[in-house]
Write a structure and sequence with these properties.
Elements: H1 3-19, H2 25-34, H3 41-56, H4 58-67, H5 74-84, H6 90-96, H7 109-118, H8 130-134, H9 141-148, H10 152-158, E1 165-169, H11 176-185, E2 191-192, E3 199-202, H12 212-215, E4 219-221, H13 224-232, E5 240-243, H14 250-258, E6 264-269, H15 272-285, E7 290-294, H16 301-304, E8 311-313, H17 336-339
Parallel strand pairs: 5-6, 5-8, 6-7
Antiparallel strand pairs: 1-3, 1-4, 2-3
The structure holds S-adenosylmethionine (SAM).
The site of S-adenosylmethionine has 17 residues, from helix 14 and strand 6.
Length: about 350
Protein backbone atom coordinates (compact mmCIF):
# COMPACT_ATOMS: atom_id res chain seq x y z
CA UNK A 1 0.00 0.00 0.00
CA UNK A 2 1.06 3.58 -0.55
CA UNK A 3 1.31 5.90 2.47
CA UNK A 4 -1.89 7.55 1.16
CA UNK A 5 -3.66 4.16 1.01
CA UNK A 6 -2.59 3.37 4.54
CA UNK A 7 -3.87 6.76 5.71
CA UNK A 8 -7.24 6.17 4.01
CA UNK A 9 -7.55 2.73 5.62
CA UNK A 10 -6.72 4.18 9.07
CA UNK A 11 -9.42 6.83 8.59
CA UNK A 12 -11.91 4.08 7.63
CA UNK A 13 -10.99 2.17 10.77
CA UNK A 14 -11.42 5.29 12.92
CA UNK A 15 -14.89 5.76 11.41
CA UNK A 16 -15.82 2.26 12.51
CA UNK A 17 -14.50 2.91 16.01
CA UNK A 18 -16.49 6.18 16.21
CA UNK A 19 -19.66 4.40 15.11
CA UNK A 20 -19.44 1.77 17.88
CA UNK A 21 -18.25 3.73 20.94
CA UNK A 22 -18.96 0.89 23.43
CA UNK A 23 -17.13 -1.79 21.40
CA UNK A 24 -13.40 -2.41 22.07
CA UNK A 25 -11.28 -0.99 19.27
CA UNK A 26 -9.18 -4.15 19.04
CA UNK A 27 -12.31 -6.19 18.23
CA UNK A 28 -13.26 -3.60 15.60
CA UNK A 29 -9.74 -3.75 14.14
CA UNK A 30 -9.84 -7.55 13.99
CA UNK A 31 -13.14 -7.44 12.03
CA UNK A 32 -11.80 -4.63 9.86
CA UNK A 33 -8.81 -6.67 8.71
CA UNK A 34 -10.83 -9.89 8.43
CA UNK A 35 -13.01 -8.09 5.89
CA UNK A 36 -9.89 -6.84 4.06
CA UNK A 37 -7.66 -9.87 3.79
CA UNK A 38 -5.80 -8.23 0.91
CA UNK A 39 -4.06 -5.93 3.43
CA UNK A 40 -0.72 -7.63 4.17
CA UNK A 41 1.22 -7.81 7.45
CA UNK A 42 3.34 -4.67 7.30
CA UNK A 43 0.46 -2.59 5.93
CA UNK A 44 -1.78 -3.85 8.73
CA UNK A 45 0.77 -2.76 11.22
CA UNK A 46 1.05 0.72 9.67
CA UNK A 47 -2.72 1.14 9.40
CA UNK A 48 -3.39 0.09 12.98
CA UNK A 49 -0.38 2.04 14.31
CA UNK A 50 -1.89 5.25 12.98
CA UNK A 51 -5.40 4.45 14.21
CA UNK A 52 -4.00 3.41 17.60
CA UNK A 53 -1.87 6.55 17.71
CA UNK A 54 -5.02 8.62 17.28
CA UNK A 55 -6.88 6.67 19.99
CA UNK A 56 -3.88 6.98 22.30
CA UNK A 57 -3.74 10.77 21.86
CA UNK A 58 -7.42 11.35 21.28
CA UNK A 59 -7.96 13.83 24.13
CA UNK A 60 -5.12 16.07 22.97
CA UNK A 61 -5.89 15.86 19.27
CA UNK A 62 -9.56 16.63 19.94
CA UNK A 63 -8.63 19.52 22.18
CA UNK A 64 -6.54 21.08 19.43
CA UNK A 65 -9.26 20.62 16.83
CA UNK A 66 -11.93 22.13 19.08
CA UNK A 67 -9.57 24.96 19.96
CA UNK A 68 -9.43 25.74 16.22
CA UNK A 69 -13.22 25.58 16.00
CA UNK A 70 -13.26 22.27 14.12
CA UNK A 71 -15.31 19.14 14.81
CA UNK A 72 -12.95 16.19 15.44
CA UNK A 73 -13.86 13.91 12.53
CA UNK A 74 -11.77 10.81 11.76
CA UNK A 75 -10.15 12.69 8.85
CA UNK A 76 -9.18 15.65 11.00
CA UNK A 77 -7.97 13.40 13.81
CA UNK A 78 -5.75 11.56 11.34
CA UNK A 79 -4.53 14.89 9.95
CA UNK A 80 -3.78 16.14 13.46
CA UNK A 81 -1.92 12.89 14.18
CA UNK A 82 0.39 13.13 11.19
CA UNK A 83 1.09 16.77 11.98
CA UNK A 84 1.32 16.88 15.78
CA UNK A 85 2.83 13.45 16.37
CA UNK A 86 4.59 12.51 13.13
CA UNK A 87 5.55 16.20 12.81
CA UNK A 88 4.60 16.63 9.17
CA UNK A 89 4.34 20.19 7.89
CA UNK A 90 1.00 21.43 6.51
CA UNK A 91 1.94 21.17 2.83
CA UNK A 92 3.24 17.63 3.16
CA UNK A 93 0.24 16.55 5.25
CA UNK A 94 -2.15 18.03 2.68
CA UNK A 95 -0.39 16.04 -0.05
CA UNK A 96 -1.25 12.80 1.82
CA UNK A 97 -4.91 13.62 1.20
CA UNK A 98 -4.25 13.15 -2.47
CA UNK A 99 -7.72 12.24 -3.76
CA UNK A 100 -6.12 9.36 -5.67
CA UNK A 101 -7.67 5.94 -6.23
CA UNK A 102 -6.61 4.55 -2.87
CA UNK A 103 -5.87 7.69 -0.85
CA UNK A 104 -8.22 9.89 1.15
CA UNK A 105 -10.14 12.65 -0.67
CA UNK A 106 -8.44 16.08 -0.84
CA UNK A 107 -8.77 18.42 2.13
CA UNK A 108 -11.68 20.81 1.76
CA UNK A 109 -11.24 24.51 2.48
CA UNK A 110 -12.08 24.15 6.19
CA UNK A 111 -9.76 21.17 6.62
CA UNK A 112 -6.95 22.94 4.78
CA UNK A 113 -7.43 25.85 7.20
CA UNK A 114 -7.04 23.45 10.13
CA UNK A 115 -3.83 22.07 8.59
CA UNK A 116 -2.43 25.61 8.26
CA UNK A 117 -3.38 26.41 11.86
CA UNK A 118 -1.82 23.21 13.22
CA UNK A 119 1.46 23.76 11.39
CA UNK A 120 4.36 23.55 13.84
CA UNK A 121 2.19 23.32 16.98
CA UNK A 122 3.34 21.15 19.88
CA UNK A 123 1.24 18.13 20.84
CA UNK A 124 0.75 19.46 24.35
CA UNK A 125 -0.63 22.97 24.40
CA UNK A 126 0.04 25.38 27.28
CA UNK A 127 -3.67 26.11 27.78
CA UNK A 128 -4.70 22.45 27.98
CA UNK A 129 -6.61 21.50 31.14
CA UNK A 130 -4.89 19.01 33.43
CA UNK A 131 -6.82 15.93 32.25
CA UNK A 132 -5.97 16.63 28.61
CA UNK A 133 -2.36 17.40 29.44
CA UNK A 134 -2.04 14.12 31.33
CA UNK A 135 -4.17 12.29 28.74
CA UNK A 136 -6.56 11.04 31.42
CA UNK A 137 -10.37 11.24 31.32
CA UNK A 138 -12.01 13.66 33.78
CA UNK A 139 -13.92 10.91 35.61
CA UNK A 140 -10.67 9.16 36.52
CA UNK A 141 -8.55 12.18 37.37
CA UNK A 142 -9.52 12.73 41.05
CA UNK A 143 -9.06 9.07 41.97
CA UNK A 144 -5.75 8.74 40.18
CA UNK A 145 -4.47 12.03 41.63
CA UNK A 146 -5.36 10.81 45.14
CA UNK A 147 -3.63 7.49 44.49
CA UNK A 148 -0.43 8.71 42.80
CA UNK A 149 0.01 12.30 44.02
CA UNK A 150 3.14 13.92 42.61
CA UNK A 151 3.97 10.75 40.69
CA UNK A 152 0.84 11.07 38.53
CA UNK A 153 2.50 12.82 35.54
CA UNK A 154 5.16 10.09 35.37
CA UNK A 155 2.54 7.34 35.73
CA UNK A 156 0.38 8.94 33.04
CA UNK A 157 3.38 9.33 30.72
CA UNK A 158 4.28 5.65 31.19
CA UNK A 159 0.74 4.71 30.13
CA UNK A 160 1.25 6.40 26.77
CA UNK A 161 3.92 4.06 25.51
CA UNK A 162 2.64 1.14 23.44
CA UNK A 163 2.46 -1.96 25.61
CA UNK A 164 4.66 -5.01 25.06
CA UNK A 165 2.97 -8.36 24.50
CA UNK A 166 3.37 -10.81 27.38
CA UNK A 167 2.90 -14.55 27.06
CA UNK A 168 2.73 -17.25 29.69
CA UNK A 169 4.39 -20.54 28.91
CA UNK A 170 2.04 -23.41 29.68
CA UNK A 171 4.12 -25.92 31.62
CA UNK A 172 1.52 -28.59 30.90
CA UNK A 173 2.77 -28.42 27.28
CA UNK A 174 6.46 -27.59 27.66
CA UNK A 175 9.19 -25.56 29.36
CA UNK A 176 10.04 -21.90 28.80
CA UNK A 177 13.16 -22.78 26.79
CA UNK A 178 11.05 -24.91 24.43
CA UNK A 179 8.58 -22.05 23.95
CA UNK A 180 11.41 -19.60 23.23
CA UNK A 181 12.82 -21.98 20.61
CA UNK A 182 9.39 -22.55 19.04
CA UNK A 183 8.65 -18.83 18.80
CA UNK A 184 12.11 -18.03 17.45
CA UNK A 185 11.57 -20.64 14.74
CA UNK A 186 8.43 -18.69 13.78
CA UNK A 187 10.31 -15.39 13.52
CA UNK A 188 9.64 -13.86 16.96
CA UNK A 189 12.19 -12.64 19.49
CA UNK A 190 10.76 -13.37 22.96
CA UNK A 191 12.66 -12.50 26.12
CA UNK A 192 12.01 -14.04 29.56
CA UNK A 193 10.01 -11.69 31.81
CA UNK A 194 11.69 -10.16 34.81
CA UNK A 195 9.40 -11.45 37.58
CA UNK A 196 7.18 -14.24 36.33
CA UNK A 197 9.07 -17.52 35.97
CA UNK A 198 6.72 -18.59 33.14
CA UNK A 199 6.56 -15.29 31.27
CA UNK A 200 7.88 -14.24 27.88
CA UNK A 201 7.81 -10.71 26.51
CA UNK A 202 7.61 -9.53 22.92
CA UNK A 203 8.42 -5.86 22.41
CA UNK A 204 5.09 -4.99 20.72
CA UNK A 205 1.79 -6.32 19.46
CA UNK A 206 2.25 -9.36 17.22
CA UNK A 207 0.02 -11.87 15.44
CA UNK A 208 0.78 -14.51 18.03
CA UNK A 209 -2.53 -16.38 17.68
CA UNK A 210 -1.46 -17.52 14.22
CA UNK A 211 1.62 -19.34 15.56
CA UNK A 212 1.81 -23.10 16.15
CA UNK A 213 3.09 -22.42 19.70
CA UNK A 214 -0.18 -20.63 20.48
CA UNK A 215 -2.51 -22.98 18.62
CA UNK A 216 -0.97 -26.01 20.32
CA UNK A 217 -1.39 -24.42 23.75
CA UNK A 218 2.32 -24.01 24.54
CA UNK A 219 1.83 -20.26 25.14
CA UNK A 220 -1.10 -18.11 26.22
CA UNK A 221 -1.45 -14.34 26.09
CA UNK A 222 -1.32 -13.01 29.66
CA UNK A 223 0.22 -9.89 31.17
CA UNK A 224 3.06 -10.51 33.54
CA UNK A 225 1.09 -8.82 36.36
CA UNK A 226 -1.79 -11.25 35.88
CA UNK A 227 0.65 -14.17 35.86
CA UNK A 228 1.97 -12.99 39.22
CA UNK A 229 -1.53 -12.77 40.71
CA UNK A 230 -2.22 -16.36 39.66
CA UNK A 231 1.15 -17.41 41.13
CA UNK A 232 0.43 -15.61 44.44
CA UNK A 233 -2.65 -17.77 44.96
CA UNK A 234 -0.20 -20.59 45.61
CA UNK A 235 -2.35 -23.31 44.03
CA UNK A 236 -0.48 -26.62 44.26
CA UNK A 237 -1.12 -30.15 42.95
CA UNK A 238 -4.07 -31.85 44.65
CA UNK A 239 -5.71 -28.65 46.00
CA UNK A 240 -9.36 -27.67 45.62
CA UNK A 241 -9.50 -24.16 44.11
CA UNK A 242 -12.33 -21.77 43.19
CA UNK A 243 -11.68 -19.06 40.60
CA UNK A 244 -14.80 -17.07 41.44
CA UNK A 245 -14.68 -14.40 38.68
CA UNK A 246 -12.90 -16.53 36.12
CA UNK A 247 -13.97 -14.73 32.93
CA UNK A 248 -12.31 -16.49 30.01
CA UNK A 249 -10.11 -18.38 32.50
CA UNK A 250 -6.84 -16.49 32.16
CA UNK A 251 -5.87 -17.19 35.76
CA UNK A 252 -7.58 -20.61 35.91
CA UNK A 253 -5.21 -21.69 33.12
CA UNK A 254 -2.17 -20.47 35.02
CA UNK A 255 -3.30 -22.14 38.26
CA UNK A 256 -4.07 -25.43 36.48
CA UNK A 257 -0.47 -25.43 35.26
CA UNK A 258 0.91 -24.75 38.75
CA UNK A 259 -1.29 -27.63 40.00
CA UNK A 260 0.22 -29.87 37.30
CA UNK A 261 -3.34 -30.83 36.31
CA UNK A 262 -3.92 -32.46 39.72
CA UNK A 263 -6.68 -31.50 42.17
CA UNK A 264 -9.73 -29.52 41.05
CA UNK A 265 -10.40 -25.94 39.95
CA UNK A 266 -13.89 -24.55 39.43
CA UNK A 267 -14.03 -21.53 37.15
CA UNK A 268 -17.17 -19.50 38.00
CA UNK A 269 -18.58 -16.46 36.27
CA UNK A 270 -21.91 -14.74 35.65
CA UNK A 271 -21.16 -14.45 31.93
CA UNK A 272 -21.94 -17.46 29.75
CA UNK A 273 -19.99 -16.19 26.69
CA UNK A 274 -16.89 -15.70 28.83
CA UNK A 275 -17.15 -19.19 30.25
CA UNK A 276 -17.60 -20.56 26.72
CA UNK A 277 -14.33 -18.85 25.81
CA UNK A 278 -12.82 -20.44 28.92
CA UNK A 279 -13.78 -23.94 27.80
CA UNK A 280 -11.98 -23.47 24.48
CA UNK A 281 -8.84 -22.17 26.13
CA UNK A 282 -8.80 -24.95 28.72
CA UNK A 283 -9.01 -27.51 25.94
CA UNK A 284 -6.21 -25.91 23.95
CA UNK A 285 -4.00 -25.80 27.03
CA UNK A 286 -4.57 -29.51 27.84
CA UNK A 287 -6.14 -28.72 31.24
CA UNK A 288 -8.03 -31.71 32.67
CA UNK A 289 -8.62 -30.61 36.26
CA UNK A 290 -10.96 -27.64 35.67
CA UNK A 291 -14.72 -27.34 35.37
CA UNK A 292 -16.86 -24.26 34.77
CA UNK A 293 -19.90 -23.08 36.70
CA UNK A 294 -22.22 -20.37 35.41
CA UNK A 295 -23.42 -18.36 38.42
CA UNK A 296 -27.10 -17.41 38.36
CA UNK A 297 -28.56 -14.47 40.32
CA UNK A 298 -28.97 -15.56 43.95
CA UNK A 299 -26.87 -18.67 43.30
CA UNK A 300 -26.16 -20.61 46.51
CA UNK A 301 -23.29 -22.51 44.89
CA UNK A 302 -20.63 -20.77 47.00
CA UNK A 303 -22.64 -20.93 50.23
CA UNK A 304 -23.15 -24.68 49.88
CA UNK A 305 -19.42 -25.16 49.48
CA UNK A 306 -18.32 -22.93 52.35
CA UNK A 307 -15.06 -24.14 53.83
CA UNK A 308 -14.39 -26.73 51.14
CA UNK A 309 -11.72 -24.89 49.16
CA UNK A 310 -8.00 -24.63 49.83
CA UNK A 311 -7.83 -21.44 47.77
CA UNK A 312 -10.38 -18.95 46.45
CA UNK A 313 -9.42 -16.29 43.92
CA UNK A 314 -11.84 -13.37 43.51
CA UNK A 315 -10.65 -11.39 40.51
CA UNK A 316 -13.49 -8.90 40.88
CA UNK A 317 -14.66 -6.65 38.04
CA UNK A 318 -12.80 -3.34 37.90
CA UNK A 319 -12.45 -0.30 35.66
CA UNK A 320 -9.78 -2.02 33.61
CA UNK A 321 -7.52 1.05 33.87
CA UNK A 322 -4.59 -1.36 34.02
CA UNK A 323 -5.20 -2.13 30.36
CA UNK A 324 -5.24 1.45 29.11
CA UNK A 325 -1.72 1.17 27.84
CA UNK A 326 -2.70 -1.75 25.63
CA UNK A 327 -6.23 -0.55 24.83
CA UNK A 328 -6.06 3.24 24.75
CA UNK A 329 -9.73 3.45 23.77
CA UNK A 330 -10.80 1.70 27.01
CA UNK A 331 -10.59 4.93 29.00
CA UNK A 332 -13.44 6.32 26.87
CA UNK A 333 -15.59 3.24 27.30
CA UNK A 334 -15.72 3.60 31.10
CA UNK A 335 -17.35 6.48 32.97
CA UNK A 336 -18.02 7.81 36.46
CA UNK A 337 -21.12 5.63 36.78
CA UNK A 338 -19.14 2.47 35.99
CA UNK A 339 -16.60 3.47 38.60
CA UNK A 340 -19.33 3.95 41.23
C1 LIG B 1 -11.48 -8.99 35.98
S1 LIG B 1 -12.59 -10.00 35.11
C2 LIG B 1 -11.93 -11.61 35.30
C3 LIG B 1 -10.68 -11.89 34.50
C4 LIG B 1 -10.21 -13.33 34.65
N1 LIG B 1 -10.05 -13.71 36.03
C5 LIG B 1 -8.90 -13.57 33.91
O1 LIG B 1 -7.85 -13.64 34.56
O2 LIG B 1 -8.94 -13.65 32.69
C6 LIG B 1 -13.98 -10.03 36.19
C7 LIG B 1 -15.04 -11.06 35.87
O3 LIG B 1 -16.03 -11.04 36.89
C8 LIG B 1 -17.26 -11.45 36.34
N2 LIG B 1 -18.32 -11.10 37.28
C9 LIG B 1 -19.05 -9.95 37.35
N3 LIG B 1 -19.92 -9.99 38.36
C10 LIG B 1 -19.75 -11.20 38.96
C11 LIG B 1 -20.38 -11.83 40.09
N4 LIG B 1 -21.35 -11.23 40.77
N5 LIG B 1 -19.96 -13.07 40.43
C12 LIG B 1 -18.97 -13.67 39.74
N6 LIG B 1 -18.35 -13.13 38.65
C13 LIG B 1 -18.74 -11.90 38.29
C14 LIG B 1 -17.27 -10.76 35.00
O4 LIG B 1 -18.16 -11.41 34.09
C15 LIG B 1 -15.80 -10.85 34.57
O5 LIG B 1 -15.59 -11.96 33.74
Amino acid sequence: MTPEGRLAASIDMLHEVAEAPRRPADAIAADFFRARRYIGGSDRRAVSDLAWGVLRQRLRLEWWLRELGARPTPRLLALAHIMLIERMRATEAARRFDGGRFGPGPLDVGEAGVAEALDGRPLIGKAMPEGVRLNLPDWALPGLAARFGDALPAEAAAMEKPAPLDLRVNRLRGERAAAIAALRAEGFAPEPTQFSPDGLRLPHRAAITATAAYREGLVEVQDEGSQLIAALVGARPGMRVADYCAGAAGKTLAMAASMANQGRITACDVSAPRLEGAVKRLRRAGVHNAETHLLAPGDRWAKRRAGTFDRVLVDAPCTGSGTWRRNPDARFRTNAQDLA
